[in-house]
Amino acid sequence: MSLFEFLMVLVSIIIGLGVAEVLTGVARQIRFRASIRGYWVHSVLATTIFFALIQQWWEIWGLRAVPEWTFHALVMMLTGPVGLFLIAHLLFPEPMQGANFREYYNGAMRPIWWLAAVTVVLATLFRPLIFGSDLFTPDNATSLIFFVGFVALALSRRSVLHTTLVPVFLILILLDIFQWNFVISTS
Question: CA torsion sign, 45 to 51 to 57 to 60?
């Protein structure tokens, strides 16, 4: 087992748990569909978190050639996956049966947006702090937009802001995947 494979076990477990949280939440929505009131913004957000988790796992492939790891480098690398797992876990109401997703979104999301802001800062700073990579790259430009958007949503209850920014987040994560990280290879 290579060093990268060893580290990827832990990363993959955390990301897999986050993906399982999102998929379980969606499955429970389907199961209780007769008793719940859905909210399209919440559904777009769940889709965004799903793609963000997959994107985190996908981008970590770029670290396969790192010959040596320190413990604090591992902890910094895990900040993105851990933050996304926590968001995925908090994304769906408990109990699901009879839930009103608009009310849940409007009531429970403020701490989630703050968690998202901290997560994007730590995940963005990982490579510059640990490997000395440039902070200001096109790939990181979306992180700045995410951060500003997350703080704005944490501070505002205006529905027009939420109904605008959440779909923009989905578009940005897809842009990040397809523009800068669409293909991985062994070379």
Answer: negative
